[in-house]
Amino acid sequence: MDLGIAGRWAIVCAASKGLGKGCATALAREGVNLVINARGIDTLEETAVYLRTLHPAIEVRCVAGDVSRDDIRHALLIACPQVDILVNNAGGPPPGDFRNWTREDWLNAIEINMLTPIELIKATVDGMAERGFGRVVTITSSAVKAPIDILGLSNGARSGLTGFVAGLARQPRLAEQNVTLNNLLPGSFDTERLQKTIQSSSQATGKSQEAIADQRLQGIPARRFGTAEEFGAVCAFLCSVHASYMTGQNVLLDGGAYPGTF
Fold first, then answer.
1. Where are the beta strands (DSSP E) in the chain?
2. CA nearest 191: which of 31, 42, 5, 18?
3. In DSSP terms, which residues pair with 135 in a beta bridge?
4. What InterPro entries does its record include (predicted)?
5. For residues 184 and 141, what is the distance between their CA atoms, to the nearest angstrom?
6. What span, in angstroms and rounded, lies between the C-alpha atoms of 138 and 169?
7. pLDDT at residue 20, as a whole number
């Protein structure tokens, strides 16, 4: 299927590895020009080299740094001639017991997992509306629907972001102008983040990492962890011309782990 977005420009945050790289990869294959961001310059540039091999016509630019900083966000926007697609993504705050978290821990979580994507949305959606095309995909977490006890910082910050996106997506001034905003909620994907969560659970419970991983798999009807590639494919579809009637939605990708009907 031709997604109809070849030649568009996209900003993809936290794109050097994991789910962000999966999204950037899928968009690159569709002929989308990319401005990618991550904190580490070496890995980011390696990813850019790889992305350029996927499509002969695309341009890939790198902006390294912490996207929660004003100057890095400004550099991202300057590097992208026209933001048609925005993929918000950031590593989640560390797991733990809420009794040990300070006010500073909470403010840091809210800054990176709520306020930063809101700032990027604020900087881009009006331009999208003026041009009559825009796609915002924000990667949150399955914990927005089914909270995970040790991920309280993420549960709180990302739930706030989810509520904000839900309201904004339904503003006629955006929806009428072919600007959609949707969230992607990953369950257990085989990424560095998952491995760290398993390691933390192992340390907290005394169980082996293998036992923790097997326990997680038993709760997934698909009996496997997801891949970054299949996650990216769903992201690319949400960015396509075919998804123009889909906005304000939370798309859960978890192998069937969430037990609810809605």
1. 9-12, 33-38, 60-64, 85-88, 134-139, 179-186, 250-253
2. 18
3. 85, 180
4. NAD(P)-bd_dom_sf, SDR, SDR_fam
5. 7
6. 12
7. 97
Q: What is the CATH number of domain 9-187+227-247?
A: 3.40.50.720
pLDDT above 70: percentage of residues in the chain: 100
Distance separating alpha carbons of residues 97 and 4, to the nearest angstrom: 46
Q: 94: which DSSP letter?
A: P
Q: What are 203's two structure tokens?
A: 């340390």
Count Cα atoms within 13 angstroms, Cβ side, for 195: 4
Quick: pLDDT tens for 151-169: 889 999 999 999 999 999 9
Whether 18 and 192 have beta carbons less than 8 Å apart is answered as yes
What pLDDT is stored for residue 195 in this prediction? 87
CA distances from 77 to 33, 39, 96 (A): 14, 16, 34
- pTM: predicted TM-score of the whole model, two decimal places: 0.94
CB–CB of 128/179 below 8 Å?
yes
* Beta pairing partners, 10: 34, 85
Give residues with Cβ within 8 angstroms of 212, minimum separation 6: 198, 201, 202, 205
The residues with which 252 forms a beta bridge, in sequence order, are 185
| pLDDT for res 72 | 97
